[in-house]
Automatic annotation (TrEMBL):
The keyword Isomerase does not apply. Residues 178-239 form the Tyr recombinase domain. This is Arm DNA-binding domain-containing protein. It comes from Solibacillus merdavium. GO terms for molecular function: DNA binding. The lineage of its organism: Bacteria, Bacillati, Bacillota, Bacilli, Bacillales. Belongs to the 'phage' integrase family. Pfam families: Arm-DNA-bind_4, Phage_int_SAM_3. InterPro entries: AP2-like_int_N, DNA_brk_join_enz, Integrase-like_cat_sf, Integrase_catalytic, Integrase_recombinase_N, Integrase_SAM-like_N, Phage_Integrase.
Length: 239
């Protein structure tokens, strides 16, 4: 039977508040043969941390403790980001890391994954909307982590699905007017990927055509089959 080893430590959160945490050793994992540990944080008092630690020790001694590898939003993010990195270009990955480092994790990283509610998600979206231009993008990435949590059995539903995003954004982030009406290459790719999944093929084809040729909507809608040269892969604008 494994004997737990642990120590309770204090730390400061982003607001400068003193909280408590502990990392407890649970013995050797029978599947991997490696040491098994779990970390709990976010306790407001040392007594609260001691109570949680005592409960874990008792469950381990009775053989009833069920370890969940992902217990906080940060834990799930750490698992998700490994898979996400394999699916996107490096530039997109770097930008994503920035969204989490600067906005999502400071707000939600310490939350117990099963305790995250619609009200919590709405609260933080409203905060992001009041600070930055791309609050909806940030919300979409936070939602991806909770979607990952659902797939892996940590959550039943995603509270971000019900967050109201049609709010007046009062962000103070400076906007370059010259760039305000343009997507970056990564943003355009994300947009087209989403359009391909959620729009009918005619709408998606029109958007893709406009995006990659630079033609106006009126020019694209005026095209006929006679304007298409399949031999030389050319389009002739007739308006």
């Amino acid at each position: 039977m494994a004997q737990t080893r642990s120590s309770i430590k204090s730390y400061k959160n982003k607001k400068g508040e003193t909280l408590y945490m502990f990392r407890v050793y649970l013995g050797i994992n029978e599947l991997t043969g490696k040491p098994d540990n779990t970390t709990r944080r976010g306790f407001k008092t040392k007594r609260e941390a001691e109570h949680a630690l005592t409960k874990i020790k008792f469950e381990v001694s009775q053989g009833t403790y069920k370890s969940s590898r992902a217990e906080t939003f940060q834990d799930v993010y750490d698992l998700w980001i490994i898979q996400y990195e394999k699916t996107v270009e490096e530039s997109t990955f770097v930008k994503t890391i920035g969204y989490f480092k600067n906005h999502i994790l400071p707000s939600m990283g310490n939350y117990r994954i099963e305790k995250i509610t619609i009200a919590i998600c709405q609260k933080h979206f409203d905060e992001w909307a009041g600070k930055v231009k791309k609050a909806r993008t940030i919300k979409a990435y936070a939602k991806k982590v909770l979607d990952f949590a659902i797939v892996h059995g940590y959550l039943a539903t995603n509270p971000f699905t019900h967050v109201e995003t049609k709010v007046k954004q009062t962000y103070s982030e400076p906007v370059n007017e010259e760039d305000a009406n343009f997507y970056t290459k990564e943003e355009l790719t994300t947009f087209l990927n989403y359009a391909e999944l959620h729009l009918d093929y005619k709408a998606y084809t029109l958007l893709r055509l406009i995006s990659y040729t630079g033609m106006r909507k009126s020019e694209a809608l005026a095209l006929t089959w006679n304007d298409l040269n399949l031999v030389d892969n050319e389009l002739r604008l007739s308006c």
